[in-house]
Each structure stands twice: as structure tokens, then as C-alpha cells.
Design goal:
Two copies of one chain form a homodimer.
Chain A lengths: L9 H9 L8 E3 L6 E4 L4 E10 L11 H17 L4 E11 L5 H18 L4 E9 L4 E9 L16 E5 L4 H12 L19 H9 L6 H8 L4 E5 L3 H12 L2 E4 L8 H6 L5 E6 L9 E7 L3 E4 L2 E2 L8 H4 L6
Parallel strand pairs in A: 4-5, 9-12
Antiparallel strand pairs in A: 1-2, 3-6, 4-6, 7-10, 7-11, 8-10, 9-11, 12-13
InterPro entries (chains A, B): PurM-like_C_dom, PurM-like_C_sf, PurM-like_N, PurM-like_N_sf, ThiL-like
GO molecular function (chains A, B): ATP binding; magnesium ion binding; thiamine-phosphate kinase activity
Keywords (chains A, B): ATP-binding, Kinase, Magnesium, Metal-binding, Nucleotide-binding, Thiamine biosynthesis, Transferase
Chain lengths: ~325, ~325
């Protein structure tokens, strides 16, 4: 039960992972050879990579193996969706200490599979890599299919467009604040969440942080509906909208009445991986709600006034190993 | 000059990397959006991922940033080539301590670019991810194009086939032995290589270990020439040939006269990333040389006798952080 990966051969660890990660419907060659081969019937492939590192990106006291696998899949699927594509396959590079329990790794594989099943049916792990490291690290690459459509870039927004969002804003950030505020010991180290200590609604905030469920399928739907610009909101709406504004050479004017009860959390909380898009006009496609307008100018406005709070997350500026 | 990544914003570090990584000819959308888009004109994409972790996979006392970037590219390009494909694009997930010097990162980007230019022209970095970690980690994903051919798998070898190799055998392993044997201090920690202490020919062995140059272009040529099975030799010929034998349900009988002057190094040294292939008959395509025959049976034979020395490298079984 407490068998570690160091007790097993690389081959046996890989076998146990592969037994759990399912099969991608687009896989022409799956795990086990030098490389996978994935169908790309539209003649192009969308590709993105995102890494979760123990310390800055997750803490084992808070995240189970399942959560880690789920989140590593979800954040990458969101980047594929944000191009207007359908995710087809994941590659997973896992670097972990030799004393990592194999049960943890199996749960991680379950989380990868179930995130794909729930968020992007047909997508699954097609390959990966296993190595030893002092720092538990999960680097995922996601591939996707544009199905003949042009990719939806950050740079396509034009004055007059409706700014719209699909998915949650601010919940994951509020969940992180609960973890940092209430589930650390006197030295500042994370301690497991005591479910009995949670108030009404807080379990959902932790869920949003630990197992985000961005609306992956809506990315392709938005593209079909004519989305002009799109990106996933990983670093907070204010910061990510400013990136879209800059790429498009426009201003994005957000209406706080569309941002829910906690406007500051919606603007500055990261990691929800909602889809931010602009459309020429309403009606919006299902799942999207209007949160503002594209204007001439630059930067992010809230109710017409420049919004200068940076929000978001910079791994080098914001992470301090001593304070978490 | 000693500016670290922690002194700069994520955006500035990414800008400096992107300025050096070149442009992939297959890139329809390059770095800077949520994901890249890479042409896949044959309707499928080859995809593989491989990670280099500080400690088990490289030591900063021995590897410069340039070497690390070069090797991270080369080992992944070899996996694409081993499928009979042409590499088209790399994604690079870089996790590094905040005190990593930006000059090191820029050199790493140069190594990535120049390995692609030298080994797989047209291929370049199309995307990536940057995060902070206590352990310097470079996770690369390589994509490739089969150009309409079927992938060449490990499982296609049949009795009577000629076993052939393209590239070096044993040099990288001999280079590693020099580093471990002669360039460590009394405590066992790596110390920089003193070029004046190298004997004739040893510089080439270190080069093979630190900046391997596998024959990437020969992978697609082998496929065109009808290679029936192929894989890259990353863990030593004996171990990798046993994997091909098992996948194909055959025995692989190696002729030691084809393995160069140091047969043990050729059989057991890893990390050369030569291409091991089988062909129905000679003549072999340019760059390949015969090293044996496929037989009925199982396992690896040398001169007709079973070869049971395992060789190769298992990250969990073989790495000990204390002894290196």
C-alpha cells in the first residue's frame, strides 16, 4: 500500500500509469513506442504546454494525486479550447522523487483521465516521460484540432465588439485565499483541509482551485459562432484582458455588473481558466455572457475608468518559498 | 551580466527566449498566444516528450546552458526521427530557480535553436511555459510530420531482417564515465572539466555526452527506404534492442564486429540516440551499417549467444543523489 515509485522499475510505473489513462480517439499510435501519432485531419495541430511544480503551483498537503492530475489536464485543455480547437491528446512528463507513493501516481493518472472524460471527451494521454527529481513536477502538453476553422487569436478584438466570458471568475482565487489564510500551521506550512472547518459555499471554492472545470467544449462553439478574439483567463481577468487589449490594439471596457458579487475577486483572481472572447454582436453563443465592450484606446477599463490594479500572478515576482 | 530570472518579469524572460529560438517553417501561429498552431499536411502529427532534470540528467558544473538546450532538443528530435518522421516544432517547458542567470537561459535558447538548425532544419520552438522550481527542469515536446508515410514502429521486425544502426554507439556513455570518473571532487560533487586534463579523443566523447548529434534526417530516409522497425537507442543498444525484440516477438542477433572497438560500451552505453532499424535486405540506405540479423526467438544475442547484461539506465533504480 505504501509502495513507492523507487521500489518499482520505470517499466512497471509506466505500465501502471498507462493502465489508467484511457485511449484518445485520435490516437493512431499510443503510448509505448518512441513517439505517439495523433490524427490531425484538418491539416494542422494546436499545441500548448503548461507545468505544475510543487511549491509555487500546488502543495501536497492540499492537493491529492487525483487533483493534481485533473488540474494539469484542465489547464492545458483550456489553452487548446481558447484557440477555438477541440483537444485531441495529452503528453505528460512526470518528474518525481523516488519516495513518491505509487498510489499517488495512480490517482494522478485517474485525474488526468477523468478530467479528459469530463471536459474533453475523446482526448486522453497518448505519451509521456518519467524521470526522477527532487521536485515533483507535472509538465503536460495538449494537442488539438481546429476542424478546418481558423484559430481564434488574442489579437482579433475590434472596437464595438461585445466582450464575453464563459466559465467562472474569481472562484479559484478565493479558494486559494482560503487555503493560504486558514490551512497553514504556525510556521506557514500547508496543512490538510479540515472539511468541518469550512463555511457554506467554501467547499465549492476549494473545488474550483483544486479541480477547475473550465468550459472546454465552448471554445470550439465560440469559434463556430464567430468569436473574433479569445484567450483563457489563467492570471486574472484584469491582467489577461489587458493582454488581449494590447495584442488587439484596443481598450477593453468591463461592466462590473457582469462580474458577480465579488468584483475584485473576479478581476484579480487567477486559475479559473474561463474563456474570454469578443464577438461582433449579440446574441452570444450558449454559455457566454456579456461583460463589457471593446473600445478605441488601450488597456482595461472598468465602467469606463482605467483599471490599474495589476492582479494576476508572476511566478518570479510573486512566489516566495519561505512564505508560500 | 549576472542578472537572474528573478530580477526580471516573466514577460521579459519570455521575450528574451523568444528572440533567440528562431521560427519553425511549419508554424502557422508561433509563441505568444494561448497555444501554437503547427502545419500537419499529412493529416497526422507525431508527438513525444522527454525531460532533463538537474541531478539525474545533467549537472550544471558539466553542462553549460547551451549544452542543455542542445541536448534537450536533440533527444526529442531523435524520438521523432525514430518514427520515420521529420521534426516540425518543439514546445519547451522550463522550470528554474529564481537565481538562474538570464545569460544561462539565453544560452539555453541558443542551444535549442542551433540543435534544430543543425539536426532538423525548419524545426524550431513554437511555444513553451516558464515556471519557478527549486530543481532546474527542461521538459521538451517535439512534433513531427510523417509526410504521408506510415509510422515505423518498434514492432515491425521479422526474422531474416538485417539489423542496422545509424549514428554513434557508446561514445556518450564513455563521455559520462570520464565526467564521473575524473571530474568530481572528494565529496563526489561534479567539478568543471579541465580541458588540459583530457587525453586525445576524450573531448569528442564529452561532446557526444553533452551535445549529442544523432542523425535525425536519416529517420525519414530510413522510412522511405522501407525500414520495418525503428527506435532510437537512448538506454544502450542491448536494452533497447531487447525492447524492439520483445515488441516484435523476435530475437535480435548482434554481430560484435559491427560494434566498433569498444563492444561493451557500444552495447551498454546510453544517450547516443543512434537509430536502430531493421530492413528486409541490403543494400541499406546511406548512413546505416549492418550490425546483425533478426532471428526467430526472443531477446538479444551477441554472436548467437544470449546477452543477459542489462546495461542501460533506469531513473529510479540507477540514480542516487548522494553518489551521483
Amino acid at each position: 500500500m505504501d509502495t513507492t515509485v523507487g521500489d518499482l522499475s520505470e517499466r512497471e510505473v509506466l505500465r501502471r500509469i498507462a493502465a489508467r489513462t484511457g485511449r484518445a480517439s485520435a490516437a493512431l499510435v499510443g503510448p509505448g513506442d518512441d513517439a505517439a501519432v495523433v490524427a490531425a485531419p484538418a491539416g494542422s495541430v494546436v499545441a500548448t504546454t503548461d507545468t505544475l511544480v510543487h511549491g509555487p503551483d500546488f502543495r501536497l498537503a492540499w492537493s491529492r494525486g487525483y487533483d493534481l492530475g485533473w488540474k494539469a489536464a484542465a489547464v492545458n485543455l483550456a489553452d487548446v479550447a481558447a484557440m477555438g480547437a477541440r483537444p485531441t491528446a495529452l503528453l505528460v512528463a512526470l518528474a518525481m522523487p523516488a519516495d513518491t507513493r505509487i498510489a499517488f501516481v495512480e490517482a494522478l493518472a485517474d485525474g488526468l483521465r477523468e478530467a479528459c472524460e469530463a471536459l474533453a471527451p475523446g482526448c486522453a494521454v497518448v505519451g509521456g516521460d518519467l524521470t526522477v527529481s527532487d521536485t515533483l513536477t507535472v509538465a503536460v502538453t495538449a494537442l488539438g484540432d481546429l476542424e478546418g476553422r481558423a484559430p481564434v487569436l488574442r489579437s482579433g478584438a475590434e472596437p464595438g465588439d461585445v466582450v464575453a466570458i464563459a466559465g467562472e471568475l474569481g472562484l479559484a482565487g478565493r479558494g486559494l485565499a482560503i487555503l493560504f489564510g486558514r490551512f497553514r500551521d504556525a510556521a506557514g506550512d500547508p496543512v490538510p483541509v479540515d472539511a468541518a472547518a469550512l463555511r457554506a459555499g467554501e467547499a465549492a471554492l476549494l473545488e474550483a482551485q483544486l479541480r477547475p472545470a473550465p468550459p472546454i467544449g465552448l471554445g470550439a462553439m465560440a469559434a463556430v459562432a464567430g468569436a473574433k478574439a479569445m484567450m483563457d483567463v489563467s492570471d486574472g481577468l484584469a491582467l489577461d484582458a489587458s493582454r488581449m487589449a494590447e495584442a488587439s490594439g484596443v481598450a477593453i471596457d468591463l461592466d462590473p455588473s457582469g462580474l458577480g458579487p465579488d468584483v475584485a475577486a473576479a478581476l484579480e483572481g487567477g486559475e479559473d481558466h474561463a474563456l474570454l472572447a469578443t464577438f461582433a454582436a449579440e446574441p452570444l453563443p450558449p454559455g457566454f455572457r456579456a461583460i463589457g465592450r471593446v473600445r478605441e484606446g488601450s488597456g482595461v477599463l472598468v465602467d469606463g475608468a482605467p483599471y490599474d490594479r495589476r492582479g494576476g500572478w508572476d511566478p518570479y515576482a510573486d512566489w516566495d518559498a519561505r512564505t508560500g
